[in-house]
Amino acid sequence: MIEIVYQYDPANEPSAEQPATAEEAIFTLQRGNRAFADLAREGSQRYVIPVSAAEIGIGVHAQTPIAAVLGCADARVPLELVFSQPANDMFVVRVAGNVLEGATVGSLDFAINNLPSIRVVAIVGHMGCGAVRAAVEAYLDPTTYLVLSANLPLRSVVDSIMAAVRGADMVLRTKYGHDRAEWPGYRDALLATAVVLNAALGADALRRIYADHLGANLEVVFGVYDLGSRLVGLPGRDSTWRQGLAVPPAKAEMTSFVESVVDSVYVRELLNRT
Question: Which CATH number characterizes residue 26's domain?
Answer without folding.
Answer: 3.40.1050.10
